[in-house]
Amino acid sequence: MVMRSNGMNWVLRALIKANGYSDYDLRRPIVEVVNTWSEWNPGHYHLRLVVEAVKRGVWMAGGFPLECNTVSLCPGQSLPNRNLLAMQVESIIRGIGGEEDPALYAEPADAVVFICSCDKDIPAFLMAAARINLPSIFVLGGSMFPGTWRGEPVVCCTDAQRLQRELSAGNIREEDWLEFQDSVMPCPGACGPMGTANTMQSITEALGMALPHSASIPAVMAEIYRRAEESGRKIMELLREDIGPRDIMTEDALENAIRVLMAIGGSTNAIIHLIAIARQLDIDLPLERFEEISRETPFIVDVKPSGR
């Protein structure tokens, strides 16, 4: 097990101890718990409790979890967010000294747990993980439940766009539109349809970077916290065996992710994200390979927007 935190200088040790931690804690491997918790949108609102479950698992397995929060806006608010977030996370974890001077690492983590839910933060974290190549695991925030409006099941953003057009055409009243807003997003979690957020959660599991079956857990279910705790324990196993993202996200893993993308009828945004991730891994992933896999893979998931 490689512990680069052993190389931190006295200043970094003193900074951590100023937060109330001890030399006993600092003898443990440091696990950075990177997450996008915020109160801005439901995809991140519930992650505060997910973080605590992960940290509980890390402590159980002999690690020392330290949390780092990053910003992730709704993709409709910030289109360049993916690359900015990837660079931010890499700079935090890689540190100011770079690989040449481990004593100057800003955040001398030995391993990383990435907690994320939405369109841009998931691919951003996958890109950062590929570049940093420290033992890493992803904990996915899950999806919100669909809503119900006047007896009709509705999900954002597919049905929201439809109703917004109805409002613009004068077919529904402003009061109807406000009532719809109360119903379309009934709880925390990523947006309900198989848009980019749910697609990237599925792809992360298909890449092998998240625990099996963790991409399909609704955000408000207790199971998500059990899987988060398990992930906290699992990262210590990956650290002991020195298994990094480049050992997991191989060419075969990328092709498996593409096959899952086609089977679920996922977002076309995933294509540009997978190509970007592959480039960070120094793997050639031509667009033609998506076409080849698409032609031989059946579409089997009947959910909005491609299905019902």
What can you see in these coordinates?
It is a single chain. The chain is α/β, with parallel strands linked by helices and 308 residues long. The protein folds into two domains: 4-143 and 204-245, Rossmann fold; 147-184, no CATH class. It contains 14 helices and six strands. The chain has helices at residues 10-17, 23-26, 42-45, 47-60, 81-94, 121-132, 158-168, 174-184, 196-207, 223-240, 245-248, 251-264, 269-280, 287-296; strands at 30-35, 64-69, 111-116, 136-140, 147-149, 152-154. The protein is globular. It starts with 9 loop residues before the first helix and ends in a 12-residue tail after the last helix.
**Name of the level-1 CATH class of the largest domain:** Alpha Beta
Q: Classify the helix fraction into a percent range.
A: 40-55%
- CATH topology description of the largest domain: Rossmann fold
Question: Spans with pLDDT under 50 lasting ≥5 residues?
Answer: none
Instruction: Tell me the CATH superfamily of the largest domain.
Output: Response regulator
Spatial shape: globular
- Class per helix and strand makeup: alpha/beta
Mean pLDDT: 89
Spatial strand arrangement across the major sheet: 2-1-3-4
N- and C-termini, Cα separation: 48 Å
Biggest sheet statistics? 4 strands, parallel
CATH architecture heading of the largest domain: 3-Layer(aba) Sandwich
Number of helices: 14
| Overall number of domains | 2
Please trace the helix and strand order, writing H or E for each element: HHEHHEHEHEEEHHHHHHHH
Calculate Rg over CA atoms.
20 Å
Number of strands: 6
Percent of residues in beta strands?
5-15%
